[in-house]
Specification:
Helix content: 55-70%
CATH architecture of the domain at 264-305 and 344-457: Up-down Bundle
Number of strands: 4
Shape: elongated
Largest sheet: 4 strands, antiparallel
Order of helices and strands: HHHHHEEHHHHHEEHHH
Radius of gyration: 36 Å
Distance between the termini: 82 Å
Strand order of the largest sheet: 1-2-3-4
Length: 462
């Protein structure tokens, strides 16, 4: 009897220990959001806020109104999106899912109570057992570490999502401002072409121009009207794209500057771009955490290859009359690997780990190539925009001025003067497009040093 009581006492103490261990896991105060803020803060100067409800707080509402009360700069547009984009807020919720998995991994499964009751002519057989999954305790450290790695990986993925949204907003802002600029210039060109077409009509009526010259001016005016219509269509599309990223229901809620920023005085060097790139690439950090988690999962799979269920707990049995004493003892239950030795699970885990290793190696190669490609595009588009600004546009302007003087001296015809004006219009349009392409390339280069470009480009490009 004393031995039975000793076993029961030890079993109860073991259960109390297991219960105390199972209650250690708890949720953090911020759910990992502060870690995301710190990680993103290395790349963005804007503020991150996670909303606790469907509606913004008063402070956020006031700040949003302040941003919308004036033309949005590119930095203000990014800040507004970080406040108001609902997809981003949904990403923050994934932190809670990952943390819940981590907390769950640190908790033991609930104890199991089983009972057998039988009676025959006054004889009873009663078996009662209170068991816990002891094997879950053995594997708990590895399981918790796996979920901790997944939680860290989720933080990296959310951080990358924040930065990708910021870069998508930058691209959309550049496209929208460039569209505004194109519409304004197209309207001026249309007005000038209309005046030239009217002049050509009058000169033709007076016999000073040929029908062919008059038709050419009329054709230029028709083309200018079409370009103005296309520019307005592109303007609406670009503004709607930006409005979606900002989380605004109506594009009329915001205004934009009239012009894109000028070219910077100098371009960044490849050495500046590549410095610390691979320490800052969030996709590589997340993949590294994934490989580490898979390695631990492989170890766990090998540990649980033969036995993955082991239950232990105190039990008592009554056999005989109802008033007889119970027999105290311990119940042990485990799975016998008769048909499944676990080699398939191990082989699967090993294959997944090998797959992840090779995928990681390819990601490193892709990251190096993406940075070089983005930098090459950035450098070439900088040179193109600068060439238009410093060479082609001033040259076309000088030619027009010289021909203006010659026209005043009746040395060239009005048709020649208008042809030079059209050439200048074309060069200005090309410069505005080149300036837009440069700022888009600059946004892509900035993202390439942090994460993959293709995913974000698709969100911000028409």
């Amino acid at each position: 009897m004393n031995a039975s009581r000793e076993i029961t006492i030890r079993g109860g103490a073991a259960l109390l220990l297991l219960l105390s261990l199972g209650g250690c896991a708890s949720f953090s105060r911020d759910g990992g959001f502060e870690d995301v803020k710190q990680g993103v803060g290395k790349h963005l100067k804007q503020e991150l806020i996670r909303e606790k409800s469907d509606s913004p707080t008063n402070a956020i509402s006031v700040r949003m109104k302040e941003l919308l009360a004036q033309p949005l700069s590119i930095d203000d547009a990014v800040q507004l999106a970080l406040f108001n984009n609902k997809d981003l807020q949904a990403r923050y919720a994934s932190l809670g899912v990952a943390e819940a998995d981590l907390v769950q991994a640190g908790r033991l499964p609930n104890p199991r109570f089983s009972m057998l009751y039988a009676r025959n002519n006054g004889d009873y057989k009663i078996e009662q057992a209170f068991t816990m999954n002891v094997f879950a305790l053995v594997t708990m450290p590895k399981a918790k570490e796996m979920e901790r790695q997944r939680f860290e990986q989720t933080k990296q993925a959310v951080s990358l999502g924040v930065i990708q949204l910021a870069q998508s907003v930058r691209r959309a802002w550049v496209n929208a401002v460039a569209a505004n600029q194109a519409v304004a210039y197209a309207a001026q060109v249309q007005q000038s072409a209309q005046a030239a077409a009217e002049l050509a009509r009058r000169m033709y009526q007076r016999g000073n121009w040929s029908k062919l010259d008059q038709a050419r001016e009329q054709g230029f005016y028709a083309d200018a009207a079409l370009e103005y219509a296309r520019a307005r269509e592109q303007q609406v599309s670009a503004h709607e794209q930006l409005a979606r990223l900002l989380g605004l229901a109506d594009r009329s809620l915001f205004t934009l500057p009239a012009h894109l920023p000028d070219l910077p005085s100098s371009e960044a060097s490849l050495a500046q771009v590549e410095r610390n790139t691979f320490d800052l690439r969030l996709d590589l950090q997340a993949q590294r955490l994934e490989v580490e988690a898979l390695a631990r999962r492989l170890g766990l799979t090998r540990t649980t290859r033969f036995i993955n269920v082991l239950e232990l707990g105190p039990a008592r049995v009554l056999e005989g009359r109802r008033g007889d004493d119970y027999k105290n003892g311990v119940e042990i239950a485990f799975e016998l690997p008769l048909f499944d030795s676990g080699n398939a699970r191990v082989a699967r885990a090993e294959a997944i780990y090998t797959e992840a290793l090779n995928h990681t190696a390819q990601l490193v190669v892709d990251a190096q190539s993406e940075v070089r490609t983005a930098y090459n595009s950035y450098r070439v588009r900088y040179e193109i925009a600068r060439h238009y600004r410093d060479e082609i546009v001033p040259l076309r302007h000088r030619i027009l001025q010289e021909n203006q003087l010659r026209y005043n001296g009746m040395l060239v015809s009005a048709f020649d003067l208008l042809a030079d004006a059209r050439a200048q219009v074309n060069s200005v349009n090309q410069y505005m497009a080149a300036l837009r392409d440069f700022w888009l390339a600059e946004a892509d280069l900035e993202l390439a040093t942090v994460g993959p470009v293709a995913q974000a480009v698709g969100k911000g490009k028409e």
